[in-house]
Amino acid sequence: MYARSSKVLTIAAFTWAAFILLVGSGLAQSTSSNDTGTEAKAALQNQQPTVDTSKYIGSESCKKCHEFLFKGFERTKHFQLVSDTRRGQAFQGCEGCHGPGRAHVESGGDPQKIRSFKNILTDAKKTSQWCLNCHQYESEHNNFARSPHMSANVGCLDCHSVHHANVAVHLLSSEQPQLCIHCHKNVSSEFDRPFRHPVNEHLISCTDCHNQHGGSNAHMLRSAAGQAEICTKCHTAMAGPFAFEHSPIKLEGCISCHVPHGSSNPRLLTRPEVNQLCLECHTFTTNSIVKAPPSFHNQLQQYQACTMCHVQVHGSHSDRYFFR
Ligand code: HEC
Ligand code: HEC
Ligand code: HEC
Ligand code: HEC
Ligand code: HEC
Ligand code: HEC
Ligand code: HEC
Ligand code: HEC
Ligand code: HEC
Ligand code: HEC
């Protein structure tokens, strides 16, 4: 399994776009008759090792010596692994993560005789692979192995703690946004600007817009930034469709005019002044495909905001010039 996923990673490193194409078009399947395909199949079969059940002993026996830790574990969602027998002992209880425990127990607790995360904590790929044994099948996490986080050696245990979580919900090592800005200091300063999405105020979180577990969109966004969905799931009024669309919204998305994090403009515009923003596209240069404002605008523009008259700048049901 591990060999197979590192092959996937190599392909992704060469060309990410081609990889998506390959999988998306089903080409990946049609190669299954050549060498690569047979190899992959064999690797998949090897993935199901015959479990030597005599090496397992069950979670109850851990309780005796690790009582404090066990009590904490009982309050987490992972505790359901203790009674879930569906996938066999290799996926059950404490041993689902720590591997077979009989030798450890019978030796009176020899730390060498149990799978410990201690020795591999700095290798996020290895630790995360253990978690992904179970979690890779959820759509939220199935792209983690090729996410920018994993590529930068940021793994599950940089954000989650199985036994010592400071935030009980989702076993987080700290709350958002602190969890994220602890590493993303430059982003933190964007949320210190005078006008920003209320992330520090806990009204929305980084993960409303980003999937920290990865995905196929740039910047790990939950939908492609060029589309408006990432914003219109909350700002429903701008979703349209309108009889008269302002085409940059459909073509380049909301971030052609707005910054997502924070801005010095109260409407989170990319420019301090609204006229500056409009005139960047609606220029008077002759080769522009975007229409320049009619000449009578010239005297007015320095006194009046364009949006004084063009009120419905996100689209209108009744007026092609976006008047009310
Ligand atoms: C979901 C995976 C998972 C399960 C299930 C799990 N552990 Fe752990 N365990 C870890 C990880 C990861 C670490 C090390 C990193 C850390 O502290 O988060 C760890 C660390 C430990 C340690 C080292 C000391 C410590 O406090 O960190 C002990 C002892 C331990 N686990 C015992 C158990 C016992 C007993 C159970 C069952 C009640 C259990 N674990 C269930 C993942 C798991
Ligand atoms: C007879 C007592 C005993 C039992 C039963 C026991 N342990 Fe331990 N365990 C210990 C001792 C002692 C240590 C070493 C403690 C230390 O280093 O602080 C230890 C350490 C560990 C560690 C950490 C290893 C390391 O290198 O940090 C893990 C993980 C662990 N035990 C898991 C388990 C699991 C899972 C079970 C049940 C299958 C279990 N233990 C049952 C006594 C026990
Ligand atoms: C043996 C299978 C298995 C392994 C291995 C495993 N998990 Fe889980 N995990 C589960 C199950 C089952 C749940 C509960 C799912 C649910 O209730 O929706 C869960 C839930 C979680 C949750 C959500 C908890 C919550 O309160 O919402 C987190 C976070 C998590 N696991 C992290 C990890 C991490 C980190 C690792 C690796 C150290 C790991 N898991 C390894 C099976 C596993
Ligand atoms: C960059 C930080 C980060 C990393 C790395 C990370 N997580 Fe998470 N994870 C989070 C946050 C934050 C949440 C809670 C999101 C929320 O509140 O909606 C979460 C939620 C979860 C949940 C519960 C909700 C859900 O999405 O199903 C599970 C399970 C989970 N993570 C597992 C994992 C596993 C397994 C890994 C490694 C393969 C991992 N996470 C890596 C930050 C992270
Ligand atoms: C309202 C949605 C939204 C929220 C909330 C949000 N982001 Fe973003 N973020 C975006 C969008 C959209 C982009 C892409 C911007 C672009 O392409 O110009 C982005 C880009 C990024 C980038 C890459 C570019 C850069 O600035 O370095 C990082 C890292 C990032 N966000 C982290 C975070 C963190 C950390 C938080 C929480 C503190 C957060 N984001 C909250 C929407 C959001
Ligand atoms: C342990 C440090 C660490 C933590 C914690 C962390 N990140 Fe990251 N993150 C990184 C690194 C390193 C990268 C890859 C390098 C980069 O793009 O900055 C990255 C990349 C990203 C990117 C992609 C940036 C791009 O330009 O494509 C986003 C988005 C992001 N992180 C969001 C988050 C969010 C949201 C959280 C909190 C849930 C979080 N990160 C927590 C270290 C971290
Ligand atoms: C999870 C919900 C959510 C998402 C997703 C979201 N926003 Fe927001 N947005 C808010 C909230 C809450 C406010 C603050 C409203 C307030 O202060 O009255 C806000 C404020 C704003 C404002 C300033 C509004 C004002 O009245 O001045 C703009 C502009 C904005 N968002 C644009 C965007 C854009 C662009 C995106 C996509 C990149 C986006 N939002 C995604 C919830 C969201
Ligand atoms: C062509 C540039 C442009 C695009 C593209 C754009 N906006 Fe705006 N938006 C503006 C301007 C200009 C204002 C300020 C209007 C004013 O001051 O009257 C604004 C104001 C807002 C406001 C706050 C005021 C209000 O009307 O409620 C929100 C929220 C908002 N936009 C969300 C979005 C969303 C969501 C998208 C994507 C669907 C988007 N915008 C795309 C230019 C744009
Ligand atoms: C990212 C580039 C961009 C920005 C910024 C922008 N526009 Fe546009 N706008 C366009 C494009 C493209 C069209 C459609 C092509 C055309 O008709 O010129 C358009 C169309 C229009 C139209 C309708 C023209 C017609 O003849 O149907 C008006 C009015 C308009 N924009 C006003 C504004 C105002 C006011 C602002 C500032 C709030 C603004 N635009 C910002 C690109 C932009
Ligand atoms: C005082 C009100 C007012 C203000 C302020 C204003 N406009 Fe206009 N705009 C109009 C009128 C009226 C029309 C013409 C409608 C028609 O031809 O029927 C127009 C038309 C346009 C057109 C369409 C041109 C075409 O050839 O179809 C664009 C683009 C435009 N304005 C952009 C702007 C920009 C950019 C600003 C800010 C610099 C701005 N407007 C400020 C009233 C205004």
Structure, explained:
The protein is mainly α. Among the domains are: 56-116, no CATH class; 119-174, no CATH class. It contains 20 helices and 2 strands. It has a two-stranded antiparallel ribbon. It binds heme C (10 copies). One heme C binds at residues 275, 278-279, 282, 291, 293-294, 297, 300-301, 304, 306, 308-310, 321. Residues 197-198, 203-204, 208-209, 230-231, 233-235, 254-255, 258, 260, 266-268 line the site of one heme C (HEC).
**What kind of assembly state do the chains in view correspond to?**
single chain
Bound molecules: heme C
Give the overall average pLDDT: 83
What is the string of SSEs from the N terminus onward? HHHHHHHHHHHHHHEHHHEHHH
Number of strands: 2
Residue stretches low in confidence (pLDDT < 50, at least 5 long) are: 1-46
Summarize the model shown:
The protein is built from 20 helices and 2 strands.
Provide key terms for this protein.
binds heme C, mainly alpha, disordered N terminus, single chain, 1% strand, 324 residues
Write the layout of secondary structure elements.
Elements: H1 2-14, H2 16-24, H3 27-30, H4 35-46, H5 60-63, H6 67-74, H7 80-83, H8 95-98, H9 102-106, H10 124-135, H11 148-151, H12 156-159, H13 178-181, H14 185-190, E1 195-196, H15 206-209, H16 229-232, H17 247-252, E2 262-263, H18 274-281, H19 297-300, H20 306-309
Antiparallel strand pairs: 1-2
Helix pairs in contact: 1-2
This protein binds heme C (HEC) (10 copies).
One heme C is lined by residues 57, 61-62, 64-66, 94-95, 98, 101, 104-105, 108-109, 111, 114, 116, 118.
